[in-house]
Protein 1
Amino acid sequence: DQQVKQNSPSLSVQEGRISILNCDYTNSMFDYFLWYKKYPAEGPTFLISISSIKDKNEDGRFTVFLNKSAKHLSLHIVPSQPGDSAVYFCAASTQGGSEKLVFGKGTKLTVNP
Amino acid sequence: DTAVSQTPKYLVTQMGNDKSIKCEQNLGHDTMYWYKQDSKKFLKIMFSYNNKELIINETVPNRFSPKSPDKAHLNLHINSLELGDSAVYFCASSQEGAIYNEQFFGPGTRLTVL
């Protein structure tokens, strides 16, 4: 029962262009959504989050969009930089506080110079 | 300063052995977690502790026993290791009451069972 799905295992973009990473979820009880970035041999690092009462959250080059009716969220990176090359995980939580995160399988982003 | 640290980073052992992985966080967080990333790359919760009390136990074999001596430490002991236990284990921590439940992860421990 994969509650959080990232259907694209990989994505390749040119430096300076937009990267769009997609995530779908099935559990309508999820209230919080987070994106993590992971480099090889390191742990995931928190990138950006959004709550279900919002449809957009922006932090510098990173913007997350949430379409609650479609149970879909996306992470936009613009402009993309080679240092953004990493695996990006979408995660969801039913509430804040100490609740577990449910992760997608990740999308490997490669930004080509 | 390392926020969430794990030791060892790599662990290679034989089937049937018992091993432990240690985790420490210096963020002052109340809650700590263990996640497992298997060969299919899924990152799944195993346990979480809040102020030394177990709050999440996700259908993990009882060969896995977490121990939290204080709220800054959460160790994972695994008895009678099996081939299927080979994975990367991540420790994480978060602050109770954090709105988005941002969790901070350690660098991972790659366990290989031969």
Protein 2
Amino acid sequence: ETGVTQTPRHLVMGMTNKKSLKCEQHLGHNAMYWYKQSAKKPLELMFVYSLEERVENNSVPSRFSPECPNSSHLFLHLHTLQPEDSALYLCASSQGNGQSTEAFFGQGTRLTVV
Amino acid sequence: RKEVEQDPGPFNVPEGATVAFNCTYSNSASQSFFWYRQDCRKEPKLLMSVYSSGNEDGRFTAQLNRASQYISLLIRDSKLSDSATYLCVVNWSGGSYIPTFGRGTSLIVHP
């Protein structure tokens, strides 16, 4: 499979649950990103990993915990979320040290916190 | 703060119309620029890169004005299938080139 793949596509979880979102890219990119998109709001950058090191953390609450075990995989671990965390979570990758490179997105995980 | 500003619209136009979107960015050190398209409940997808000299891809023309820090997208002969949200994206260099997205401009093309 090519491109950026996210699983699961849909997730419903309770506020006391722990779950993880997974992202995998087959593009040979060295940078990966998590974005959050709430209804009627712009994309919000959450985390950036470049060469498996976290280089950006945009004041995201600690109930979101990213993990990047290698350049092809990115996880977002979720625990004790709030209903306002319900959103579309998008993973993207790019060749982070190439200034002209575009970001490629996965199809997203639509998360509902109940 | 690194910001990308867009008029959210919606722009409501008839088929065949020409429509233009603008986007301004605050970081003068921004290095590269793109327009993405996002359909409802789908992920953003690259529409076109924006080059300093301006570039065209069929009915779509993108322009960059570095002095005024804005980019534009012109769509000619609008089709119903052009209805979507158009996102302006600016890569800035903080060590890595991090894509920063505008809030998007909604386009509705009607018969």
